[in-house]
């Protein structure tokens, strides 16, 4: 008989699109002694044939079928066939990291564990992310071996997919899934297993890749009452389990989790229910609460739900659902007689006793630097859910009974309003000016705790400064000035404190030795991980960094694989007009654009050792996109985490569009990016950047965009370019095809009236769909012989703009480039309110009143305009564009001059 270390039970129900990836991930596991048992739960698609093919081909894959009975019954059937030493469970639309099971198995054997818990990575068609609550499970300092009775964080991981279960342990305790449950069957199984497990090993090992489907047709996704009925049944089962185990007194952690899940589900699902269905939800919540031993609410909303359900206040229950789900609801908290109440107090004053809330300060240190005795600190702070008008902020240093207070000056931070309230509560005064503090002049000897104090509407709160990012923390290191040593320390890993003391020569040498040893440990860690790239970059920089910096090199780039935008045009200008400048372009040598720029020479291969060394030693970095995301190597980022003081280059942002369509200060603010120079295209744009992005006037340079030097109108007068931007809320092909966005453009392109118009006026139309549309849809249908659908890579965007006479767009910044050539632009904005509530934070330009082109919301208006106006440009609109575009003889020359200055 074959010995299997792990049996993997895979359950499948109509997952033909994903089953192959799931099974391939199991076949490619680094742990080879694995058996796979696939249980089909009554599928009607082609997945059964796919599984049968795998079972025929591979001896370690077994396949069995059953009539549709739900996931619990399917897992039980698979478990009955398992012979492995440990058992894992997997859904057919998920898959497993290549070394996941091997790592879990080895640590299980080493510790003789009954159960092992690893980590989960969620992913969708768009992105991937870690579950935030798993951070508590793997929090540093927690033991490797735990028990759920004493480590309540284990209640936060109900999935069976990231775990191994010792087979003998399951048999000994007769542990199976409850087939009557279709919601939370894995939670109940996990609760039972972890409660009875003697040794649960918890290790941050990447195991499960959990697929998040946008339109998954399962009970948990459907908006029906059966879901809430199942939650009530699950709660009964949990209660019975703890009663059988004689552990009823330990129910509180899991009950708190499930109660929060129930109320969150109300907001997720019941908002679309009828009044009668919402009444049933209220009734189900009553039944849910009746089984509970603890009903502690997590927040005002949940406190009201609990109270209203308990006392059958149905009218208020439905009113609460409507108010909380309404995006227009004013969510600013209320201050009454110095006490802070939830915003719900406005709507339910009779429930005042339930609605007092804790004062909570939100603060972030974005700038933290230590140079000698000078501490530089900047960021923002506000009281949660109260508008910051007239807020006062102070930096507080405390030592025993001594307090030193430094008043902070408010700065405009509209990005905080957008990020943390979606413009519903004004946090515009949350920011504070970056201040420089001489610690030796300000503080005496001893240990000083640092906090931020905010005062607003008679409410005051003071909390320690928490510095979360290692790179920010490492901006301040131990320093010795004369006979004084200043040492930053972080209580509990993040709370900032300073210790100042007088030291002698021996202590100075000891302090220096400790710093060298700390640095060496970090350096050698890369050698141990076989990251030779990073290790040797550190060594070379320490040996030759100062010498290499004297070369005064500049590094320029865009995205890793492109050379088309402002960075390319500026680089080309410098290479041809000023070849004496040591400027190098960074690009992936495998990209198509590499061959378009190679002839200019001075090319650095993206991601290589030379790239990292140039980043460490260059005088200037220049990019038209986010430098951090598009220009830094992984090694450089690792080095900057520990040695942020090595970043001595000037960072110059030459933009990839005019800022005006949206507010992007949440990504480009001075405290986040710290650009030395920020290119703009008009006084209007400069004023906006200075006002809202935190830059001084001399840091914002009016030069226009480098690519404008190559703009010239080559159109023949009859070419229309249709070029819409994207909608970030669309995540899948199905969402795209069902969206107003897609249907509107398809209706326009398929319109017989448009086709007749193109023929009558001898016009052609080029449709350049956004690359996300191209990615999700693939090929688009044929519309008409006068309509051409273009794809990414067919030609550059600049060439498209030059050779067309009329541009039809919605909100794209390419409109500024088109306006630069004095050509007519039409803004087809059929979803204005939705776009500026879901996609962008509306910028300083009012797109309903201040545009430099005609604006339409309906297709018929657009067609009438094309018929009447053709390619005629309105002189008044050209003048309006001049507010946002300043023309110079050579934009590249002007940018270079400002960079040199």
UniProtKB/TrEMBL annotation:
<dbReference type="InterPro" id="IPR029044">
    <property type="entry name" value="Nucleotide-diphossugar_trans"/>
</dbReference>
<dbReference type="InterPro" id="IPR001173">
    <property type="entry name" value="Glyco_trans_2-like"/>
</dbReference>
<dbReference type="Pfam" id="PF04464">
    <property type="entry name" value="Glyphos_transf"/>
</dbReference>
<dbReference type="InterPro" id="IPR007554">
    <property type="entry name" value="Glycerophosphate_synth"/>
</dbReference>
<dbReference type="InterPro" id="IPR043148">
    <property type="entry name" value="TagF_C"/>
</dbReference>
<feature type="domain" description="Glycosyltransferase 2-like">
    <location>
        <begin position="7"/>
        <end position="141"/>
    </location>
</feature>
<protein>
    <recommendedName>
        <fullName>Glycosyltransferase 2-like domain-containing protein</fullName>
    </recommendedName>
</protein>
<dbReference type="GO" id="GO:0047355">
    <property type="term" value="F:CDP-glycerol glycerophosphotransferase activity"/>
</dbReference>
<dbReference type="GO" id="GO:0016020">
    <property type="term" value="C:membrane"/>
</dbReference>
<dbReference type="Pfam" id="PF00535">
    <property type="entry name" value="Glycos_transf_2"/>
</dbReference>
<comment type="similarity">
    <text>Belongs to the glycosyltransferase 2 family.</text>
</comment>
<dbReference type="GO" id="GO:0016758">
    <property type="term" value="F:hexosyltransferase activity"/>
</dbReference>
């Amino acid at each position: 008989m074959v010995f299997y270390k792990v049996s993997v039970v895979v359950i499948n129900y109509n997952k033909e699109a994903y089953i192959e990836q799931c099974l391939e991930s199991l076949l490619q596991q680094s742990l080879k002694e694995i058996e796979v048992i696939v249980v089909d739960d009554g599928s009607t698609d082609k997945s059964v044939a796919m599984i049968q093919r795998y079972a025929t081909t591979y001896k370690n894959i077994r396949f069995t079928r059953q009539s549709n009975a739900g996931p619990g019954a399917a897992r039980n059937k698979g478990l009955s066939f398992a012979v492995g030493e440990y058992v894992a469970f997997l859904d057919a639309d998920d898959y497993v990291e290549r070394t996941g099971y091997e790592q879990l198995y080895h640590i299980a054997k080493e510790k003789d564990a009954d159960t092992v818990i690893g980590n989960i990575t969620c992913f969708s068609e768009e992105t991937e992310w870690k579950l935030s609550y798993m951070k508590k499970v793997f929090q540093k300092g927690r033991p490797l071996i735990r028990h759920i009775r004493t480590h309540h964080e284990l209640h936060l991981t109900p999935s069976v997919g990231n775990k191994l279960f010792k087979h003998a342990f399951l048999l000994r305790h007769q542990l199976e899934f409850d087939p009557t449950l279709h919601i939370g069957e894995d939670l109940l199984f996990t609760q039972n297993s972890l409660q009875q497990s003697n040794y649960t090993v918890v290790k941050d090992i990447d195991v499960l890749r959990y697929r998040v489907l946008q339109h998954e047709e399962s009970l948990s996704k459907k908006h029906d009452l059966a879901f809430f009925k199942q939650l009530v049944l699950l709660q009964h089962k949990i209660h019975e389990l703890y009663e059988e185990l004689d552990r009823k007194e330990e129910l509180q952690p899991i009950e708190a989790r499930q109660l929060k899940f129930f109320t969150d589900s109300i907001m997720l699902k019941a908002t679309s229910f009828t009044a009668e269905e919402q009444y049933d939800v209220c009734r189900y919540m009553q039944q849910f609460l009746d089984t509970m031993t603890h009903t502690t609410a997590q927040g005002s909303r949940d406190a009201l739900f609990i109270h209203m359900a308990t006392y059958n206040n149905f009218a208020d229950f439905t009113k609460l659902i409507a108010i909380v789900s309404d995006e227009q609801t004013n969510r600013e908290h209320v201050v009454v007689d110095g006490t802070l109440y939830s915003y719900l107090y406005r709507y339910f004053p009779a429930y005042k006793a339930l609605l007092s809330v804790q004062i909570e300060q939100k603060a972030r240190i974005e700038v933290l630097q230590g140079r000698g005795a000078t501490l530089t600190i900047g960021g923002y702070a506000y009281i949660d859910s109260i508008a910051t008008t007239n807020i006062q902020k102070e930096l507080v240093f405390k030592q025993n009974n001594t307090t030193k207070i430094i008043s902070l000056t408010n700065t405009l931070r509209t990005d905080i309003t957008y990020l943390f309230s979606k413009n519903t509560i004004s946090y515009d005064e949350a920011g504070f000016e970056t201040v420089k503090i001489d610690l030796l002049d300000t503080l005496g000897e001893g240990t000083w705790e640092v906090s931020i104090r905010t005062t607003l509407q008679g409410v005051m709160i003071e909390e320690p400064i928490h510095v979360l990012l290692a790179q920010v923390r490492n901006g301040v290191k131990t320093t010795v000035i004369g006979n004084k040593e200043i040492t930053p320390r972080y209580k509990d890993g993040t709370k900032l404190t300073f210790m100042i003391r007088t030291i002698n020569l021996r202590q100075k040498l000891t302090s220096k030795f400790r710093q060298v040893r700390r640095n060496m440990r970090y350096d050698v860690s890369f050698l141990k991980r076989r990251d030779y790239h990073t290790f040797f970059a550190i060594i070379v920089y320490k040996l030759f960094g100062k010498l290499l910096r004297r070369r005064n090199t500049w590094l320029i780039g865009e995205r890793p694989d492109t050379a088309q935008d402002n960075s390319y045009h500026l680089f080309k200008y410098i290479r041809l007009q000023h070849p004496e400048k040591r400027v190098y372009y960074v690009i992936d040598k495998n990209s198509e654009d590499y061959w378009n720029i190679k002839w200019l020479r001075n090319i650095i291969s993206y991601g290589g050792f030379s790239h990292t060394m140039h980043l460490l030693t260059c005088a200037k970095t220049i990019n038209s996109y986010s430098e951090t995301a598009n220009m830094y190597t992984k090694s450089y980022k690792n080095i900057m985490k520990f040695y942020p003081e090595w970043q001595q280059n000037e960072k110059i942002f030459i933009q990839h569009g005019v800022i005006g369509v949206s507010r992007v200060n949440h990504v480009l603010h001075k405290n986040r990016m710290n650009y030395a120079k920020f290119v703009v295209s008009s006084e209007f744009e400069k004023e906006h950047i200075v006002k809202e992005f935190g830059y001084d006037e001399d840091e914002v340079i009016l030069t226009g965009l480098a690519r404008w030097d190559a703009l010239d109108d080559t159109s023949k007068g009859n070419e229309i370019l249709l070029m819409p931007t994207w909608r970030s809320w669309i995540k899948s092909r199905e969402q795209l095809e069902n969206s107003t966005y897609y249907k509107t453009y398809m209706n326009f392109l398929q319109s017989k009236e448009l086709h007749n118009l193109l023929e009558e006026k001898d016009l052609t139309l080029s449709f350049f769909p956004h690359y996300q549309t191209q990615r999700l849809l693939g090929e688009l249908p044929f519309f008409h012989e006068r309509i051409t659908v273009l794809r990414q890579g067919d030609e550059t965007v600049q060439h498209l703009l030059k050779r067309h006479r009329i541009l039809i767009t919605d909100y794209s910044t390419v409109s500024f480039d088109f306006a630069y050539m004095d050509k007519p632009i039409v803004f087809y904005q059929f979803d204005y309110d939705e776009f500026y509530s879901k996609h962008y934070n509306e910028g300083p330009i009012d797109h309903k009143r201040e545009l430099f082109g005609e604006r339409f919301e309906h297709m018929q208006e657009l067609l009438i305009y094309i018929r009447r106006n053709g390619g005629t440009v309105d002189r008044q609109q050209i003048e309006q564009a001049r507010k946002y575009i300043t023309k110079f003889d050579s934009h590249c020359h002007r940018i270079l001059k400002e960079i040199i200055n």
